[in-house]
Design a protein that fits this description.
Shape of chain B: flat
Helix content of chain B: 40-55%
Shape of chain A: elongated
Strand content of chain A: 15-25%
Largest sheet of chain A: 6 strands, parallel
Largest sheet of chain B: 7 strands, mixed
Strand content of chain B: 15-25%
Largest interface: A-B, 36 and 43 residues
Number of helices of chain A: 7
Oligomer: heterodimer
Radius of gyration of chain B: 29 Å
Number of strands of chain B: 20
Number of strands of chain A: 12
Structural class of chain B: alpha/beta
Order of helices and strands of chain A: EHHEEEEEHEHEEHEHEEH
Chain lengths: ~280, ~625
Amino acid sequence: MDKLFLYDNGPSAMRLFQRPAIRELQRAQRFELAIACCADDAVLFEDLVATDTRLLATRLPCSSSGALVDLRAWLPPEHAAIDLSLEAYEDTRSPQWKSVVTVLNRQLAARGIDFRLAYDEAAVPMLDFVGAPTSEPLERPSIYLDTVRHRDVHCHFVVDHEHLLAALPEFDFRCTEPPPFADPRLVDDSHLDLRQRSWLSERCEALVGMTRTPFNATLTTANRWKPKVVCGYDPVSYPSFWDYQGNPLEYVETMDQLVQFLLAALWRQTCSGRV
Amino acid sequence: MSTLGDTLDALVRPTASGDACGYHDSQPPSSYQPVVEHSRQTLHEFLAHVQRHGPIDTVLQVGLGRRGGTHRAFRVLARRVVTIEIDAERVQAYAANQPTDPARDVLVIGDSNDPATLDAVRQHVGACDLLFLDGGGTYAQCAVDWRSYAPLVRPGGLVAIADRSQLWPRARQRFDVDRFAQELERQWLLPRGQRLLRFGADDAIHCYRQPADAAVAAPDLLVPRGFTIAPTSRRLAADHGGFSLHTAADGFVAVADPVAAYDERARLRNEYRVVLQHRERVGLMRLVEQFVAMRAVAAATLDSLARGDLGGFGRIAAEFRPGCEEFLAALVPSLQVTPDNLELLRVFGALHLLRGEHEVGVAALRRLLSQQFTDSQCLAALAQAHLHLRRDTAAAKRLAADVRQRLRQLEIERICHRQLSGHALWAHPSCLRGIERCLWVGNGGAAGAAAWSLLALGPFRCLGGQPDGSGQFVAGASGPREAYFDRENALIGFRRWSTQFASQCRGRQQQPIGTVQTTTLDELLQRGDLRPEEAQLLVVDVPGEELAVLRAAGALLPHVDLVCVSVYHHSVFEGGNGDRELLDLMESADMTFLGSEPSPLGHCSHALFRRSGLR
């Protein structure tokens, strides 16, 4: 069996995009995998540990821009170092499944390993975390409101929480940042880690995000067809992320557009009796 | 003929003292020394909008910035620029380093919130054509500045607000300049039938046209629910160990080379030499003392290694290894916030080598070197660590080769920035990394050859015809072809101008050269008159014929790493290229579009494509 050391020195949330690639390598049943990560990122990959897959969590935490020191410092002997970063090549910077496959295949080829992952645009996998404590609906119908920003030159948006509260009185808003003011319908979920946020999003009726990460934590099978929107991007000028056939993701530029989208999406759900 | 963009780019070239260069988004992670503190594209687009708006007589700006970059940029468009700046030292430094004309440059020293400053400004500015608010960087400051100075803008003039609030997620305030811009639009502009125009995204400039009734004093805008004044950091009374101590959002910070006021965003830009942090004040003071001591140990460690004194290295390790662990654990939170800080990396890396954690130590020093590869001591220490601590000769050789390449690239970029202009290759010298050989097809070969010689890169070959019909004419097909000469721009091509374009070219004409014999690149390759390795960089400038030339280079393109091709956006030539067709062709040839740069001619750009899969 080939031994692979999988690493990415980039930010934690960007690493979520690699999870399906790691699963595909596991399915091939011809590799021993060592997944390197920073100390505080171990929770993002714990569910991938298996007979032939171990986690190498360093004792150093992450910085905002990624690993404090190059994770290759922990390369075990006889392992081929596979850099899964989407920044590795100029034409793979768009966070799409195709980019992940391209990076992996080029790295395997560069290490002389005779295995290639096939890319099928009709079968784009999602980033699911195994082991959600519950899948029961929340007490009140809720909208996942991810206002956490990571550095992203493509995005500019300001959320007006008052506007949302007034427009959607039947819904709670599960906020990934501390709300700007106290309101019983603005629920502070800022203490949750990415995995917990992913599970939370699966129990919400609609998903609202800003920058591509950490909103990518909502890219799960349960959320595949859920109403979802990213705010502040110009999809004409900048590439979309993690696209797949039938992707319901919409892009809005203003608060009015966001509210209109949510009203339309959730009105349809209301009519079907789900709320 | 230089464009507005060329003029602005010339402003940000390295300063005479060499300590500043470029825009906000061209700075390395470990230091922040821009001439202009806005992103290049954002500023260019905003000023192009201002230029299209009409003649600008007077600009009023709040905030000079570190080096007055936007003041100088506004001078390109305006007869007079009045700038308010609270920091007298900045004004003095600007006046000392830049030529100023009292009739055109007015620098008002004072707090923009101070009524006395407003009175002083009114003496210089009755009404201005453009107001640019770029001071303070908080919701409250922006609101006060807007209320004070917006009424000075004439009806129909422009009001602009610089907004960097979304650049710094970690240091984001709950209600920031972006929220002020939103409230301004909602409460004041929309009722007047206007919206804000935004340039840029995370680094933004918002802009609106002054309504007719704005001369009346602008009202206080209602603040959002939950609004509180953003807390500012407070400096503690006593310095410690050469550091000033300040309160911070999550505890306390210590700043080397004491500063009067601590700014979290300045820390994130690595404007401070070192910042240490701790939740508790006493803990911070202890950390400062340890850092000062360990910094000396780290320096001695690297010095020993760099000189190859392994005995000295061993003695330092024996003495200080036991005390490292606790200190390094306490240092990590500071490094997490600024992972590219050079001093922190130096100490972190050296102490890990002392502790025997060679891989981590080497990785940290490697990160330092990637920011400052001219640090000869770090380079020498790292090489010795590879050779004697890790016993990895190959890694030491790779290190040396990497640094040599980086130094060479630095030299290339320096020459491009200081001595070359007017072409995408010189505006984006990073694309020349690893490129040694150039094949230049069509026009501009002589200038290209001169630039290539200046850069001291490898072989350069030009395939181009002359107005007298001599030379080598490359086209999309071989055979006899009518050629035309645009004398004003010294361009030779094979397509006539379209009627539309010709009508715009007052006084200019294409002159027929006559029938010339053309060939294709693949034909030259097939005949052995061209070797594939000659075209590592392929430049194509055959007006209106570029797509055809590339289509007829199918056998050559797989050997090319970088393509630079002129793209005519409008209907300049009869039957000329389409942008989409060019992009599709290059994608099919496994080339990634890097970007484009307008040419000085104005009706075309130079587009850059790089071989996919190159790292």
